[in-house]
Amino acid sequence: MKKNLQAEKVNKQISIWLVEDNTRYRKTLAGLIDRTPGLVCPQSFSSCEEAFEEVQTSENPDVILLDIGLPGMSGIAGIAKFKEFFPAAHILILTVYDDNDNVFEALCAGASGYLLKDSAPEKIIDSIQEVLAGGAPMNMKIAHKVLEMFTHFKPKKTDYGLTEREKEILQLLIAGLTKQQIGDKLFISFHTVNTHLKNIYGKLHVNTRTGAVSKVYKENLL
Amino acid sequence: MKKNLQAEKVNKQISIWLVEDNTRYRKTLAGLIDRTPGLVCPQSFSSCEEAFEEVQTSENPDVILLDIGLPGMSGIAGIAKFKEFFPAAHILILTVYDDNDNVFEALCAGASGYLLKDSAPEKIIDSIQEVLAGGAPMNMKIAHKVLEMFTHFKPKKTDYGLTEREKEILQLLIAGLTKQQIGDKLFISFHTVNTHLKNIYGKLHVNTRTGAVSKVYKENLL
DNA sequence: TGAACAATGGCGCAAACGTGGTATTTAACC
DNA sequence: GGTTAAATACCACGTTTGCGCCATTGTTCA
Prior knowledge:
DNA-binding, Arc Repressor Mutant, subunit A, homodimer, alpha/beta, five-stranded parallel sheet, 2 domains, Rossmann fold, disordered N terminus, 222 residues
């Protein structure tokens, strides 16, 4: 039973969809894919909308090569839609855009890789194999940008000298509880919470609960 | 002038530091690096602390290969320190840990790449070349994890049907202003702000300013 | 033309908040 | 043994908030 399944997988051709508005480039790529053993490109489209019309009548693709600069719906917006139709499919972005916004949005939307059109065609085939093997193929420059994005997430985590108890209270504050509710939850009096809150405000240099909550999120304390 | 600079770069050996507590592995790697044309490993250490003692007396390294599971200071904490001493150096993590927390922390701290110790030694040499070329070498599995992290950043941006004016007021609320202050800033009455706030609470299903602010950050609205 | 919605303005009141104090107990650190 | 910091608790006062209920104006769209 398990053996059969494996055999089936091995024998089955990997199905790849192409969404790319440049006809020449699309045809070249499609040809290249079809000429690669194990890969097949049964469908290719010049826009997302065109592709969506075929989702019911066609076999599910294993990989979708998706451009960003498309007529009509952008590739970025297309990612989410394709994910709805084919949750198991790997979506590889293939575009000329390498700006931070496009990269960030595409990856947040669930792209499994990000290639640039200046890549050699063989590199694209390699990337398809890589994503099928559980990887995340990226152009070298893109990978660098991606790592750089991480450094912006944790600026420095300023230490305001909050005690453990204060952090605990801050968390309940963020949850939207009133002082009385916080006191009840921690089995301490309303007055104690009041005092802690005063100290917290002092340490964070704010004077409202709203200001404190904002500061926690903006400088991701806690 | 420019030509000289290029020539200088080409002629200069790329200097690599090794921080790795397993002596056998460290020596193997150092040997491999020294045997690679253009690369040289003048220093290798078994802990971050040991390396920090040499920062004044040695030439700046171009690349630092850094383990995470070290005696004393962890490699994660070491990244920031090395970055202080050598802002231009590329730090490559080389470890057995592939859990999300370590990967995330390392990248936030400014690592330029993340390799696993099960990689073939030649792959490590390749990675050094890649990072010098402006890339971000990553193990295939790690790259996949990294992209997956992005999908968690933007859950879906639920639309609560906030109007533009409401968003504007929400922003000032987040800034920590009181209703009166918001009214003054927008040249509208306190009562109007009151009404808007009521509507916002209704749409966001909260009933305190703190709850609203938290919701905005948690589901990154606005 | 009429419905729906956004933005504006208003009143009253109980509840919650921010801030100024003071004070005790306990644990930690020279 | 004295100092310091953290956690606990209380009070009083003025400010701010949340929420009920209502009304007007302008725009958009069927």
